[in-house]
């Protein structure tokens, strides 16, 4: 697997915490000879992660932390051109940035929360993909788009209408794109986690730790590393092998 990943440039959105952070670490541990672009809004956190990955890999992994707000079309538009030239030949895009805000009945949900979920989880992911595809086509139709969806995109729940709808949109977009690119060697991959313990719930409850912790009480959620292993495994398959659609539950989750 390391040989297939070696030398590649991998862009991970939402790399500052949780699943995205673990994906970055796992790529470097699996194949230290790679280049990682770590993107999110918290630049200082990304810088710290970059230092730690470089140190752990003994300097073998090259890491570039870059501020990116996927919910801002203007920020996404200039993103590739803001990268140093020798970082633009991206081989793998991991569209992981995403969030949930509030858990409310449809009639009560704030317009601002609707907009942030849709512009981050859906439009942001689509815009990032659009910026990457020309790079893959210029390489003769090679590269990976790996989208982090959610079980929520398959199994909607009461109180999660917007988040569930956003992840269902990711799912449809991913599958349409996979079919559109079927004549190429561009792989389009979706990994849908069940419950994973990260800052996700903290964001959902606006930083209220007691509410966030209550989500994980009495169960054993997945760890971010569990999902990272699957993402890196998918990217490390032989070019003809597409792990198109993977749903990952913790064993307690129905
Ligand atoms: P975290 O809150 O730990 O991580 C979310 C990441 O997304 C952070 O790095 C955050 O960085 C980034 N992010 C949020 N908004 C933006 C934005 N506008 N632009 C760029 N980056 C952004 O949660 P998880 O690691 O759990 O979530 C990662 C993905 O996994 C999400 O897509 C989520 O929907 C999905 N998921 C999570 C599950 C769970 O139970 N935890 C279950 C199923 C799916 P920053 O704040 O620095 O911008």
UniProtKB/TrEMBL annotation:
Transmembrane segments: none annotated. Belongs to the short-chain dehydrogenases/reductases (SDR) family. Pfam families: adh_short (PF00106). It comes from the Eukaryota. PANTHER family: ALCOHOL DEHYDROGENASE. Keywords: NADP, Oxidoreductase. Signal peptide: none annotated. This is Oxidoreductase.
């Amino acid at each position: 697997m390391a040989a297939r990943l070696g030398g590649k440039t991998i862009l991970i959105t939402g790399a500052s915490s949780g699943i995205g952070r673990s994906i970055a670490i796992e790529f470097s541990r699996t194949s230290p000879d790679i280049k990682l672009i770590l993107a999110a809004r918290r630049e200082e956190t990304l810088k710290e992660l970059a230092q730690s990955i470089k140190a752990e890999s003994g300097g073998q992994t090259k890491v570039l932390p870059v501020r990116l707000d996927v919910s801002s079309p203007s920020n996404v538009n200039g993103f590739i051109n803001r990268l140093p030239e020798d970082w633009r030949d991206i081989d793998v895009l991991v569209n992981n940035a995403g969030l949930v805000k509030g858990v409310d009945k449809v009639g009560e949900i704030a317009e601002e929360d609707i907009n942030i979920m849709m512009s981050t989880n859906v439009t942001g992911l689509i815009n990032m993909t659009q910026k990457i595809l020309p790079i893959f086509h210029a390489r003769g139709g090679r590269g990976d788009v790996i989208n982090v969806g959610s079980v929520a995109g398959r199994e909607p729940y009461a109180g999660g209408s917007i988040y569930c709808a956003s992840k269902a949109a990711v799912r449809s977009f991913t599958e349409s794109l996979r079919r559109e690119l079927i004549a190429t060697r561009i792989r389009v991959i979706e990994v849908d986690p069940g419950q994973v313990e990260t800052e996700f719930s903290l964001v959902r409850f606006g930083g209220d730790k007691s509410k966030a912790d209550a989500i994980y009480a009495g169960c054993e959620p997945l760890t971010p590393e569990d999902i990272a292993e699957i993402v890196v495994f998918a990217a490390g398959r032989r070019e003809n092998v597409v792990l198109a659609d993977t749903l990952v539950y913790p064993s307690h989750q129905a």
